[in-house]
Known about the structure:
Layout: H1 5-12, E1 18-20, H2 21-32, H3 39-55, E2 59-61, E3 71-74, H4 76-83, H5 90-120, H6 125-155
Antiparallel strand pairs: 1-3, 2-3
Amino acid sequence: MSVDKKILQIISAPSFDRFTTFELKKAYEEKVGEDLLALPDMFKLIFAQVKLLTQSGMIERSPSDPVFSGIYIKTDRFHTNQSKKSDFSSIGVKEKHRTYKQQLLIGIGEAQEYEQLCIEYPELKKELQDKYNKIRDQNSRLLGRIKVIESILNNTDLKQ
Length: 160
């Protein structure tokens, strides 16, 4: 798994010299929209991205703050990596493709579960319908993203 470009863009901002995972989550939601992922999946994504950035040495937990504060700061390595020009990478595109497909599969499972719950408990249908519609719309957007990436992969030299 690679670091999401939107996460890197967010952290690159000077206002993110010191940040918490909650602040990163809020900024990410503003950038991609709250409907992209369910709340638990959003937190999993953010924590995974923070872990990747920490392991790569691009950010670190602030040593001057209490252990449980969860404040992160950018390291010199982050600034060095950001100054390098990023190349169009087949690995990054393929990783994004794989991530979107995984998110779509999760969303399909969620939609199927809402349908099953409506069959088993018809009295919940009204309550579950909005959630079902939301996940169905999310899945449609993901499918569109997958199609775009697949067209890029099929029409370039990235197949290798």
